[in-house]
């Protein structure tokens, strides 16, 4: 995996490679789903009767739709960023994925991490998740061409911002003033 430095100073931190960042994001994403889907489903079970009433046939269809569509959508859109923020404000400011990838988040200005940077970084991911889920829904409802085009636009807007810059920052990192570095110098 490629490593680049922020400045030419020998004491400067080493930026995390794109591969290690993607690896950490995938680990955190799946952990969020494992936590989020049961949480959202539990909330659905608690509030089920006031929402849909007692019609058994409708109840079964709605429950199946909720399990396979709404629960993952809500989990991905809201619980993933919340999980990342809550996991990051702990003792070592790293999620499990970041610890496994040996990377960490820092504030670009002073090299430390502040909770407001972590919160802003997590909240800035919500529009990205909403756009991704909208594209997936469009793919299911309107067909592959429309959903595929929406997903392509999202990828161009967000992923290529990350892939196309020398500091390996995603749009959420640029706006939050954070950077991802290796935890240990190599």
UniProtKB/TrEMBL annotation:
Q: Name one GO cellular component term.
A: membrane
Instruction: Classify the protein's membrane topology as the record does.
Output: Multi-pass membrane protein
Chief location bin: membrane
Q: Which InterPro entries match?
A: RDD
Q: Which domain of life is it from?
A: Bacteria
Q: Does the keyword Plastid apply?
A: no
Q: Which keywords are on file for this protein? A: Membrane, Transmembrane, Transmembrane helix
Q: Which residues cross the membrane?
A: 22-44, 64-89, 118-138, 144-164
Q: Outline the extent of the RDD domain.
A: 16-177
Q: Where in the cell is the protein located? A: Membrane
An example of a Pfam family matching this protein is: RDD
Name this polypeptide is given: RDD family protein
């Amino acid at each position: 995996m490629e490593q680049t430095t922020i400045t030419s100073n020998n004491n400067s931190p080493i930026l995390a490679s794109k591969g290690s960042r993607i690896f950490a994001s995938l680990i955190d994403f799946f952990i969020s789903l494992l936590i989020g889907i049961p949480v959202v489903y539990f909330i659905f079970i608690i509030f089920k009767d006031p929402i849909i009433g007692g019609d058994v046939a409708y109840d079964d269809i709605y429950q199946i739709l909720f399990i396979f569509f709404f629960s993952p959508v809500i989990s991905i859109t809201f619980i993933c960023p919340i999980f990342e923020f809550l996991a990051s404000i702990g003792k070592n400011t790293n999620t499990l994925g970041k610890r496994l990838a040996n990377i960490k988040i820092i504030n670009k200005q002073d090299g430390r991490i502040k909770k407001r940077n972590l919160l802003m970084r997590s909240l800035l991911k919500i529009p990205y998740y909403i756009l991704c889920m909208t594209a997936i829904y469009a793919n299911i409802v309107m067909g592959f061409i429309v959903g595929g085009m929406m997903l392509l636009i999202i990828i161009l807007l967000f992923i290529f911002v990350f892939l196309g810059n020398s500091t390996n920052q995603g749009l959420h990192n640029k706006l939050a003033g954070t950077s991802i570095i290796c935890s240990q110098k190599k």
